[in-house]
């Protein structure tokens, strides 16, 4: 449904998008993530026919993105979407449906369906008086009045409260179920992980990783090992890039290799202690992002992070992801420590007094 090849956009000497290639299949939800200035919006605007590429091409629904006819197949949600404040949601959406020449009865049905699915109340209130979340929902409904095949959404859930964010993400899944092709950009990795079939990570105009979230994690991330000891391992022994934290009455040292696990064992022994548990931890998309981009996802501690079951902080996320994986690998590690099985609650316990 979307084919992008050799895409480049420069502003003077500055390259906002460099040699971008990707394709999006019909009915797929495709995510573009990256830090500020990565080139996400520029890419989306090229797809939407609002910015002309300097080189390369983007084909959308069989058209070159610069062809006017392409827009009949496209719904675009810009990052900022000012609405006509004096209009009600219904009047506003009818107005756009009229612009597309959609017959009124068809438009009303489409608008009603979209607003029902988006759970939008106060449809007859002036848009200037409704909440930010409701405005965003109206803007999303606007992208659907022409019943497009392809939806291009720039940060659809950015800055929304958790309930509204969940509603927007659930709606995106419904669009996929209805056979729509959706490309959206996000700062928040949870949005991407929970909805997207495939993802690209952009940095400084270039695609630095691509694939499903699992593929990206496998290709670019590294498994780490968490070694629990009953003493703080002797810092005199080389533990590579290990970090040690106090967890309840134990110490958890995170290391990158099995060799390093052995050194933690030696380090614990040198301090008169022993290893009581070892668990593996798969990398999160957040870890991969940090490695590839060199900085954490912006706003990861913000309100967006507290969506639904999403952990409130990155550290909580780490523990939750870690424990999910850890529990599967426990049996493996447990054979060595059968006499002292790990308890999730102990391992995931209080961080008070944590030291590095
Ligand atoms: N019209 C323009 N003229 C000059 N530079 C531009 C223009 N539009 C975008 N840029 C630059 O191109 C780079 C990519 O911008 P873009 O908006 O695509 O990034 P982004 O990944 O969407 O960032 P954000 O997450 O902050 O929205 C930025 O450095 C931006 O300043």
UniProtKB/TrEMBL annotation:
Ranges of residues in domain ABC transporter: 2-229
Bias class Low complexity marks the residues at 347-356
Gene Ontology MF, one: ATP binding
Record's keyword terms, sorted: ATP-binding, Nucleotide-binding, Transport
* Region of interest (Disordered), residue spans: 296-356
Q: Where is the composition biased (Basic and acidic residues)?
A: 336-346
Family designation: Belongs to the ABC transporter superfamily.
- Which PANTHER family does this UniProt record tie to the protein? ABC TRANSPORTER ATP-BINDING PROTEIN, ABC TRANSPORTER ATP-BINDING PROTEIN NATA
Protein name according to UniProt: ATP-binding cassette domain-containing protein
Organism from which the protein derives: Halorubrum tibetense
Lineage, please? Archaea, Methanobacteriati, Methanobacteriota, Stenosarchaea group, Halobacteria
